[in-house]
Design a protein that fits this description.
This is Polyprenyl synthetase family protein. With about 375 residues, the chain is an all-alpha fold. Helices cover about 70% and strands about 0% of the residues. It has 17 helices and two strands. Helix 5 packs parallel to helix 8 and helix 8 packs antiparallel against helix 9.
């Protein structure tokens, strides 16, 4: 278990954080929409929305604690919102079998708890001040509380998985292992002589693709669907997870703050080696003079908004950004192709629509 010292907050920061925590307590997460997973107003959409309400109750119950601090911290991000993509994927994949099985609700709640737990840990590692429009947990209570709260939610997810039997426990453990290994690989960087782009893609597959793949598998297995559907649904999840994160790279680089909710170029300021940056450095190493100039901008001091904007605009205008967009679309297309063994119908259509939306949001 990781231990870290709590940051020392100024009085003003502490007050802002406390107000954000209070706002989170007063406002529960808004119900997610069924789109793009199901056509708006369809029987499937209405059924998924109704079942998602039941999942929200399970999430609230799983986070409940008798003592104030763990109770407030465990509910903090849950009540800040979120699209509940992973539970929706469980519900949609369950349509391949018997979606009314009660096990589906526990499975969907478990994957969302795992996702929430990773957010607590990620925010500590990234020193992120805000999550979902509210102060991050470590900004409110300090690093140690945030890390322990993530551990607590992992434990509650494990209890839900245990209700489902050893197969669910195995799937959760394997997914958790990949989440941790992906985070460690990101922290350590590629080995000497290794391809940094291949390393980055593997990090995305482990940190994002693995849990999306597990969500689909939970839906297939615990709805009693044909086990032959597990492999294509898992492959879809792995690939669409990579596409999702590659699209996020582009959103950070090319969107406005109004669109993304954060300052454009934040990844550049933090030195995150996103795909456009990796492509740019490869181009610079190959002798592209314009890439060399932009790499120098990226390596300079980006602490001022002016310097950041100059570097961001230059990278966004370079052909490597369009190259990264093409790669994100390729991963999305491959995720759709993986669905070929599934029967035609609402499940396949919904998964395809999700994959397209993932990359469409990046322009």
């Amino acid at each position: 278990m990781t231990h870290a010292r709590a940051p020392q907050l100024s009085d003003a920061t502490a007050d802002d954080a406390a107000q954000g925590a209070q706002a989170g307590r007063e406002q529960s997460a808004a119900p997610a929409k069924a789109g793009p997973f199901a056509a708006e107003g369809s029987a499937l959409a209405e059924s998924m929305i109704a079942r998602l309400a039941d999942i929200e109750k399970r999430l609230e119950a799983a986070a409940d604690q008798t003592r104030a601090l763990p109770d407030e911290a465990a509910h903090h991000l849950m009540r800040a919102g979120g699209k509940r993509v992973r539970p929706m994927l469980v519900l949609l994949a369950a349509q391949l079998g018997d979606p009314a099985r009660p096990e589906i609700l526990d499975a969907a709640a478990a994957v969302e708890l795992i996702h929430l737990a990773t957010l607590y840990h990620d925010d500590v590692m990234d020193d992120a001040p805000v999550r979902r429009g509210a102060p991050s947990a470590h900004a409110v209570w300090g690093n140690s509380v945030a890390i322990l709260t993530g551990d607590l939610l992992f434990a509650r997810a494990s209890l839900l998985s245990a209700r489902l039997g050893p197969e669910a426990v195995r799937l959760e453990a394997e997914t958790f292992e990949r989440l941790v290994l992906g985070q460690l690989a990101e922290f350590a960087g590629p080995d000497e002589g290794a391809d940094p782009i291949a390393h980055y893609i593997q990090v995305l597959a482990d940190k994002t693709g693995s849990l999306i793949a597990a969500s689909g598998e939970f839906g297939v297995r615990f709805s009693g669907a044909d086990p032959a559907f597990v492999a294509p649904v898992r492959e879809f999840g792995e690939k669409v997870g990579v596409a999702f994160q590659l699209a996020d790279d582009l959103i950070d680089l090319t969107s406005t703050s109004a669109d993304s909710g954060k300052t454009p170029g934040t990844d550049l300021r933090e030195g995150v080696p996103t795909l456009p940056v990796l492509y740019l450095r490869a181009a610079a190493a190959a002798g592209d003079a314009s890439a060399v100039q932009i790499a120098e901008l990226l390596d300079a001091d980006l602490s001022t908004d002016e310097a950041l904007e100059i570097a961001r605009a230059a990278l966004a205008a370079h052909p490597v950004t369009e190259q990264a967009r093409t790669e994100a679309r390729r991963w999305a297309d491959e995720s759709i192709a993986a669905l070929a063994p599934l029967p035609e119908g609402e499940v396949r259509t919904g998964l395809e629509a999700f994959a397209r939306q993932v990359v469409d949001r990046a322009g």
